Amino acid sequence: MKAAQVIKRITELGGVQIGQRGSYRTFTATNGGVTAQTTVPDHGARDLGPGLVRAIERQMEPVFGKGWLR
């Protein structure tokens, strides 16, 4: 999965980019008093590893719910 796909899905669900350091973008989202934050490495055309994709999905699950990235 490409970083652009993950970033697009996060923003579609209401996530907001709060910072960037080099190629690493930090996003946050809030829902009902619950806040989640994650960092997505955006290295152009390179695919994100499956473990990293799952880690990002887990970090945002409290706000977006299970399976939000699929």
Molecular structure report:
This protein is of the alpha+beta class. It has a single domain (3-64), classed as Hypothetical protein (Metal Transport, Frataxin, Chain A), CATH 3.30.920. It is 36% helix and 31% strand. It has a 3-stranded antiparallel β-sheet with strand order 1-2-3, with helices on one face. The mean pLDDT is 96.
SSE layout:
Layout (H helix, E strand, L loop, with lengths): L2 H10 L3 E6 L2 E8 L2 E8 L8 H15 L6
Antiparallel strand pairs: 1-2, 2-3
The proportion of strand residues reads 25-35%
Shape: globular
Strand order of the largest sheet: 1-2-3
Given as residue ranges, the uncertain stretches (5+ residues, pLDDT < 50) are: none
- Kindly identify the CATH topology: Metal Transport, Frataxin, Chain A
Q: Can you count the beta strands? A: 3
Topology as a string of helices (H) and strands (E): HEEEH
CATH superfamily: Hypothetical protein
The biggest sheet, with number of strands, parallel, antiparallel or mixed sense and barrel status, is: 3 strands, antiparallel
Tell me which CATH architecture applies here. 2-Layer Sandwich
**The CATH class:** Alpha Beta
Keyphrases for this structure?
single chain; 36% helix; globular; Metal Transport, Frataxin, Chain A; 70 residues; 3 strands; alpha+beta
Concise synopsis of the structure shown:
36% of the residues lie in helices and 31% in strands. With 70 residues, the chain is an alpha+beta fold.
